[in-house]
Amino acid sequence: MTILKGIVPVMVTPMVESGEPDEAGIESLANYLIDRGVGGLWALGSASEDININWQGCVKTIKAISTSVNGRIPVITGTGLTTVNDILKFSDDIGGQKIDGIHVLYLDTKQGDQRMIHEMIRLADQCEYPIWLYHNPKRGKPVSLEVIKALREHPNIQGMKVGGYNLSEMIQAVMHNTPEFQVIGAGGGQCYPMFSLGTKAHTTSDGCCWPEEFVKLHQLFESGQYVEAKEQQFKLIRLAKQLPRTDNGEYAAEEKYILSLRGVCEDHVNASYRKLTDEEKSKVKIALKNYGFDWA
Question: Could you tell me the pTM of the whole model?
Answer without folding.
Answer: 0.95
